[in-house]
Amino acid sequence: MYWRILLLLFGAVSILGQPQFPSPSDDDYVPCWSGDQCDACPSGFVGSVNGESRCCPNCARQGLIMSPTVCRCRRTDATNPEDQQNTGTDPQQPNAVTTQALAATEVTVPTVERTRCFGTSCPGFLTTGARCVDGFCECSSENYQRYTCLPVVGSCAIRRSSPAAQAEAFLSSERRETFSCVADDNNQYEVHVLGVYEGVGPSRGFQQDPIEAAEIKVYITAGRVSKHVILVLSSYEAVHWVITLPKGMAVPSIILIAHYIDQSDVTVRISRGRAFGFGPVIYDTAYAIVTRWSDRLIQGIPACAYGNDDGGCDTVKMLTFIGGSFMGPVSSFTGTYRTERWNLRIGNMSTAIPDKTTAMVTRSAPVVTRMTSMVTSTTSIVKRMITMRHAQGRYNVRTDG
């Protein structure tokens, strides 16, 4: 906890002189698309010049550099000049656009999804490459969206408090801000990730291991599921996750990730509804294979990842690791800094299984290249570890209700 506070304070310190991008030649840039050409592009990667929409060719999700009068895109494989059309943008003074950005009032990304500057600096700039432009932070590091500074890995582009999120977080019955993405490019598994920094529990001394874990309850609503479901539960602090499934639902595979993995645990139970239709809710014990991972044991696993990396966590690392493992890319990711309850939706919700207990408690960057070699080597280690643990019968299976 203390290291996070120090990073936030460090990020808030004013920097004398903002970092400047290099001044490449015209050969490093291609003209932007404009007008109707940008209609099919994700809104977060479309700006405007004098009221006209501008975007990178082929809706490329990286490299858009704009001023109030000029638009350029960095030359990449996604912006192949053979596919371009001359949009009539001003070819003069290319160096001017490398140190300027679109004014905040012209950005199509909602202001609520952006981070305001602390004075003239931005938190997390060492990780995200954030700098202050017109009162808002803009990011330049790979795998971080320019205007929101949130992670983007493959098809998972994290958004702040998105209505499309698969999960909702609550603390004392109040809805928490979440960071989430929803994707559909995993043909083998349905992988849902819930990430937190901590739950609500007893505090601990500096550099002391936690004595007991905070409890976080997860109520799952299930629709029609056609793939093997893998649930990934991630935290920095120790957490005891209590998973409640609706009747007829099963989550056979759970990945538990925590910095304090020895103090963390999972209990799975199935709701049978109320006794005699009106009495207390009855639960059956459910069984699941729980595999335990920690940054202390496996290289490539981040200490924490909850969707916002401006305070020391590393969601990009988490999504990269999961995508490079046997699970493949995530189907959904939802994170928040602290919570005590999640409501998670799994499967096709047009055919959702009703569950009274749950009701009662009421885009893209280029393929990730960072950590590729680490993920490749770690994946083989994890597969061997799972095979060995299966053969030795060492899976962590909870039998208590």
TrEMBL record:
Signal sequence, renumbered to the chain: 1-17
Keyword Signal belongs to the record: yes
Domain of life: Eukaryota
Entry keywords, A to Z: Signal
Protein's name in the database: Hypp3395 protein
Protein species of origin: Branchiostoma lanceolatum (Common lancelet)
